[in-house]
Amino acid sequence: MGEPCRIAVTGKGGTGKTTLASLLAASLIPAGTRPILAVDADPNANLHEALGLAVGETLGSMREETFTRSIPPGMTRTAFLALRFRQVLVESHGLDLIAMGRPEGTGCYCFANNLLSEAMETLQRDYRLVIIDSEAGMEHISRGTIGRPDLILVVTDPGMRGMRTAVRIREIAVSLGLDPGTMHLVINRDRGTPSGEGALPLPLLARIPEDPAVQDADLEGRPLVSIPPDAPSRRAVADLSTKILEICRDKRKG
Ligand SMILES: Nc1ncnc2c1ncn2[C@@H]1O[C@H](COP(=O)(O)OP(=O)(O)OP(=O)(O)O)[C@@H](O)[C@H]1O
Ligand SMILES: [Mg+2]
């Protein structure tokens, strides 16, 4: 079955990473037979809400037991973790979700980060695509939590601060030896005003328009995936999905 194509959604806070990750996941479900894995790598988990799924346990909440409670006799730690990861997984139609969550009490984030790496490593073989919704900034890239994604989408608003964050994300990725060729810019909440494309920090893969349907869903607490397929944001994401599938196909060949 081989390795899945891994797509990480990164960028400045509040630029629309979770919005994009959920709409992308919904758009990519029909494209294949094997399911998609959606990974909520934001300790303040909210991807499930955008996807209209309920999350019980997160990896962060596994902290205690994995080390204090005993692993069943005759079972290796690896086998035990694999079992527990599958229990944390939320299964839906064509899509499974795993959330990192936050460690309980004074627990260290590095523990949850490590569990996330291990969970992705263990689970990913069952999927054709993995979509990772990151927290704002560069944490997961700089810590290597999400491994080496095949495609890093850097979401920005049309403003300069988002673009500057994109420049920093690229610098960090390059300094970690990640291939800058995997990084692409997505301008979200586009209002059609020209943003000097010549000066963009990364190659532009998509512009997602400002869409009142996204705001309405958010205000009414409805899942984003409930907005109509012909809403402007969904159409733009559908085009983006086609490009992503092409990039993933090329990766496989290359
Ligand atoms: N294309 C769009 N049109 C209209 N509103 C949008 C669009 N994209 C995102 N928003 C709104 O912007 C806000 C932030 O979106 P979102 O939560 O997806 O950002 P984020 O980057 O995941 O934030 P965080 O850094 O906190 O995780 C939300 O209120 C969302 O409804
Ligand atoms: Mg988010």
CATH class label = Alpha Beta
Name the structural class: alpha/beta
CATH superfamily, by name, is: P-loop containing nucleotide triphosphate hydrolases
Q: What is the total tally of β strands? A: 8
Count of distinct structural domains: 1
Task: Summarize the amount of helix as a percent range.
Answer: 25-40%
* Measured distance between first and last alpha carbons: 17 Å
Radius of gyration: 18 Å
Q: For the largest beta sheet, what order do the strands appear in spatially?
A: 3-4-2-5-1-6-7-8
Q: What is the strand content?
A: 15-25%
Bound molecules: adenosine-5'-triphosphate, magnesium ion
**Mean of residue pLDDT?**
89
Structure characteristics:
about 250 residues, alpha/beta, Rossmann fold, 8-stranded mixed sheet, 9 helices, globular, binds adenosine-5'-triphosphate, binds magnesium ion
Describe the structure in your own words.
- With 254 residues, the protein is α/β, with parallel strands linked by helices.
- The protein has one domain: 3-Layer(aba) Sandwich (Rossmann fold), CATH 3.40.50.300.
- The protein is 39% helix and 19% strand.
- It contains 9 helices and 8 strands.
- The chain has helices spanning 17-28, 47-51, 63-67, 77-88, 109-123, 139-143, 160-175, 212-219, 232-253; strands at residues 5-11, 36-41, 90-92, 95-99, 129-134, 151-156, 183-190, 204-209.
- It has an 8-stranded mixed beta sheet, sandwiched between helices.
- α1 (17-28) crosses α9 (232-253).
- The longest helix is centred in the C-terminal third of the chain and has 22 residues, at 232-253.
- The radius of gyration is 18 Å and the shape is globular.
- It starts with a strand and ends with a helix.
- 41% of the residues are buried.
- Adenosine-5'-triphosphate is lined by residues 13-19, 42, 136, 188-189, 208, 210-211, 214-215, 218, 233.
